[in-house]
Amino acid sequence: MNSNAPESLGASYFAQIYQTNLDPWNFETSHYEREKYLASLAALPLERYHRAFEVGGSIGVLTRMLADRCDRLLSIDVSSLAQVRAQIRCADQPQVEFQIMQFPGETPNQTFDLIVLSEVGYYLSEKDLLIARDWIVNALRPGGHLLLVHWTPLVEEYPLSGDEVHNLFLAITPTPLTCVFSSRKTHYRIDVLALSSSTG
């Protein structure tokens, strides 16, 4: 692997962003974000999931929407400023749990039938994303789903592009992961991967 490859963007990067703007990507007001969230939820093969895991929940706009589809939902982020907003937004959803974690260096000791990686994979280096991929394959329950959603135009300061994130996961299909849904829009793409029911 290239020793000069960019490193993952860590907690200090996001701390600076949220100190400047508590909704830096306009999650609460953007029509684009709203449409993308609805498309993401529509892509999920099951109407309901028993235990779900969201990486990088930010201020909880998607978290709140996911909560309606989950018996239990664990949402993590590196920013306590963002997560306080998410906790307030989901205060009426007792099935949602929040933790501060630096993924994939820190991971929950649980298994899930849904893992959501939405607009966060390109903040990781290729090395860390490979670590994340291995962990996800082991943390998904047989038949469980991985929802990948990422902005596809290049962002110079990000270690990876959205397409590179998705292609790294698609590189291990059809085993142990199988692609069960794929959609590309003007500025983002959605892929849903399923873990083989014979795995594990």
Q: Tell me the number of strands.
A: 7
- Secondary structure class reads alpha/beta
Oligomer: single chain
Q: What's the level 1 CATH class?
A: Alpha Beta
Largest sheet: 7 strands, mixed
Distance between the termini: 29 Å
- Report the average pLDDT across residues: 93
Which architecture does the CATH hierarchy give at level 2? 3-Layer(aba) Sandwich
Tell me the number of structural domains. Answer: 1
- The SSE string, one letter per element, is HHEHEHEEHEHEE
Give the CATH H-level superfamily. Answer: Vaccinia Virus protein VP39
Helical fraction: 25-40%
Percentage of β-strand residues: 25-35%
Could you give the order of strands across the largest sheet?
A: 3-2-1-4-5-7-6
Please, how many helices?
6
CATH topology: Rossmann fold
Q: How big is the Rg?
A: 16 Å
The gross shape turns out to be globular
What are the segments in which pLDDT stays under 50 over at least 5 consecutive residues? none
Offer a few descriptive terms.
Rossmann fold; seven-stranded mixed beta sheet; 7 strands
Can you give me a brief rundown of this structure?
This protein has 200 residues and is of the alpha/beta class.
Write the layout of secondary structure elements.
Blueprint: H1 11-20, H2 31-43, E1 49-55, H3 61-67, E2 70-77, H4 80-89, E3 96-100, E4 112-118, H5 126-139, E5 140-151, H6 162-170, E6 177-184, E7 188-195
